[in-house]
């Protein structure tokens, strides 16, 4: 079987929300009214720290698809003032975030124990708070969130091959920066991290056999497997990878923006920035070339994310190992595409109704683990008013 990215098609129901006339969809989706509706219609669980678990109604997978979001919409009305990265969360919020992630990923591992049957991933994404609200392709909820997804391998094997030039797979052209021109420097820079649980793994060894993704990204194997996710030191190391990424991102795009080679004020690893990044002719040449393109090409310039935006994945590979990787987050590139999976969504009420009972049932099972851990309160949405799925047409 040819190794290639795959494209799957998922049904979703017709959305009940009405977007006010004259208002762009992305403007509405970031409004407090939409976030309130999301919690009331698809919310599953909320913690005192405002971490909200909810069903992804227009989702990535019909097997298991849920998210945790830091829902600050009731406290911070300015969409551009909300936390969009994990380093902007409080210590308490991060601790609960890590615990919820461990519990939900443990549910996936217990429910889908065979790596040959299911691909599992947990993907954390930041949304750049400086990105224009009305820019096409901007994610609909401007707050940090974590995705929990299971794909049946049969679905991926039987799916058609995706177009390798798909903008979602190519990060709208931005992947050439990290994956082609800066890959070796990116790897070298992150070697400064003193990691005990996360062990560096070769790019060729971390990709999925079916898709060949992720491509050219630094990756780490979790030594000790799933049990280490219960270790707070694992999450410390997970955080170190993010901090290293932020240094790389800020240094590069600051150089593109100003042309000045300098260590960012908020640097976590200043010596490594000086020695590896600013001391690299290739790093500076790529930044100069990109700077010139931004000056000459207004459309390309409008797609640049000048502030750090990332996707950090924890996934189970073909042999059952848990792998961590991290990438930039650019327009159009969804969390699944780091693993070579393009998802097309089509409005299909009948198709979604057929899969909805089993899907919701699994989401409620996962929620039970959070309830048992006494982390917050369950939400009684119309689809599960008493903790059980209620078919359409029978809801009050």
Task: Kindly describe this structure.
This protein has 396 residues and is α+β, with helices and mostly antiparallel strands. The chain has one domain (6-185, 193-228, 309-378). 37% of the residues lie in helices and 18% in strands. It has 13 helices and 13 strands. It has a ten-stranded antiparallel β-sheet with strand order 8-9-11-10-5-6-4-3-2-13. A three-stranded mixed β-sheet has the order 7-1-12. Helix 3 (91-111) packs across helix 13 and helix 9 (232-258) packs across helix 11.
Keywords:
single chain, 396 residues, alpha+beta, ten-stranded antiparallel β-sheet, three-stranded mixed β-sheet, globular
Chain-averaged pLDDT: 88
How far the N terminus sits from the C terminus, by CA atoms, comes to 49 Å
Major β-sheet annotation: 10 strands, antiparallel
Overall geometry comes to globular
Task: Compile the SSE list and pairings.
Elements: E1 6-12, H1 25-29, H2 32-42, E2 43-46, E3 51-55, E4 64-70, H3 91-111, E5 118-125, E6 145-152, H4 153-158, E7 160-161, H5 167-170, H6 175-181, H7 183-190, E8 198-201, H8 203-206, E9 219-222, H9 232-258, H10 270-277, H11 281-296, H12 298-301, E10 310-316, E11 322-328, E12 341-347, H13 349-372, E13 377-378
Parallel strand pairs: 1-12
Antiparallel strand pairs: 1-7, 2-3, 2-13, 3-4, 4-6, 5-6, 5-10, 8-9, 9-11, 10-11
């Amino acid at each position: 079987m040819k190794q290639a990215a795959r494209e799957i098609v998922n049904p979703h129901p017709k959305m009940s929300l009405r977007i006010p006339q004259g208002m762009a969809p992305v403007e509405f989706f970031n409004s407090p009214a939409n976030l309130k509706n999301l919690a009331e219609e698809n919310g599953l669980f909320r913690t005192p720290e405002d971490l909200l678990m909810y069903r992804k109604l227009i989702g990535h997978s019909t097997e298991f698809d849920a998210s945790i979001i830091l829902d600050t919409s009731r406290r911070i009305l300015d969409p551009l003032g909300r936390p969009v990265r994990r380093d902007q969360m409080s210590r308490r919020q991060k601790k609960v975030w890590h615990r919820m992630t461990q519990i939900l990923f443990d549910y996936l591992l217990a429910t889908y124990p065979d790596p040959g049957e299911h691909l599992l991933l947990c993907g954390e994404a930041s949304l750049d708070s400086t990105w224009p609200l009305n820019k096409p392709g901007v994610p609909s909820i401007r707050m940090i969130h974590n995705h929990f997804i299971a794909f049946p391998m049969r679905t991926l094997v039987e799916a058609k091959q995706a177009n390798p030039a798909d903008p979602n797979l190519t990060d709208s052209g931005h992947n050439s920066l990290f994956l082609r021109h800066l890959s070796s420097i990116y790897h070298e820079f992150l070697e400064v991290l003193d990691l005990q649980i996360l062990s560096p793994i070769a790019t060729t060894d971390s990709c999925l056999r079916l898709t060949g993704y992720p491509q050219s990204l630094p990756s780490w194997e979790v030594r000790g497997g799933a049990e280490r996710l219960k270790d707070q030191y694992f999450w410390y190391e997970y955080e170190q990878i993010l901090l290293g990424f932020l240094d790389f991102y800020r240094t590069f795009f600051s150089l593109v923006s100003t042309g000045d080679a300098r260590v960012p004020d908020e640097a976590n690893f200043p010596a490594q920035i000086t020695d590896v990044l600013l001391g690299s002719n290739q790093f500076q040449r790529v930044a100069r070339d990109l700077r010139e393109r931004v000056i000459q090409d207004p459309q390309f310039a409008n797609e640049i994310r000048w502030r750090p935006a990332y996707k950090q994945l924890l996934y189970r590979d073909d042999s059952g190992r848990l792998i961590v990787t991290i990438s930039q987050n650019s327009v159009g590139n969804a969390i699944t595409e780091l693993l070579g999976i393009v998802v097309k969504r089509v409005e299909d009420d009948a198709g979604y109704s057929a899969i909805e009972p089993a899907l919701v049932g699994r989401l409620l099972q996962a929620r039970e683990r959070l309830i048992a851990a006494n982390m917050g309160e369950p939400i009684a949405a119309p689809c599960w008013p008493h903790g059980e799925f209620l078919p359409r047409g029978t809801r009050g």
